[in-house]
Amino acid sequence: MSLKSFQFSFFRLASWLTPFLVIWLLGYVGLGWLVNSFLILVGLLFLAPVLGFVWFRWWLQRNMVQAQCPVCTYELTALNRTQVQCPSCGELLKVEQGKLNRLTPPGTIDVQAVEVSAVSED
Ligand SMILES: [Zn+2]
Q1: In sequence order, which residues have a C-beta less than 8 Å from that of residue 116 and are 6 or more positions away?
Q2: How far apart are the CA of 63 and the centre of ligand 1, in A?
């Protein structure tokens, strides 16, 4: 083995050992808490996406509402406490307590808005 390749493999080994050496050194000088908090941080970084996904699924299950449109009985899925427009009849609906309610109170006469274009000549 030549000196050069020996040096090379030594540095490779050293670069591999450095993190362990640093951790050992930190633990040795009484900074084990730093190592622990670092490990906890790494653990959290791995756990966060998993927990986030589980929480999101739980949240979705709680807030996903599948109900029928009160106007045309079209079945649609919406999130709780949101407003949706029925894809079948175009009625604006409000999702409340797992039910779909019309945004406009019953008895309201729907008036189609007509755009009036005023042409000004100047
Ligand atoms: Zn509808």
Answers
A1: none
A2: 20
In Å, how far from its chain's centre is CA 87? 26
Burial class (CB in 10 A: 0-12, 13-18, 19+), 94: middle
Question: How does residue 26 score in pLDDT terms, banded at 50, 70 and 90?
Answer: confident
Would the pLDDT of 9 be above 60?
A: yes
Q: How far is the CA of 97 from the centre of ligand 1 (A)?
A: 18
> Any idea how long the chain is?
122
Collapsing DSSP to helix, strand or coil, 115 comes out as coil
- Percentage, residues of the chain above pLDDT 90: 28
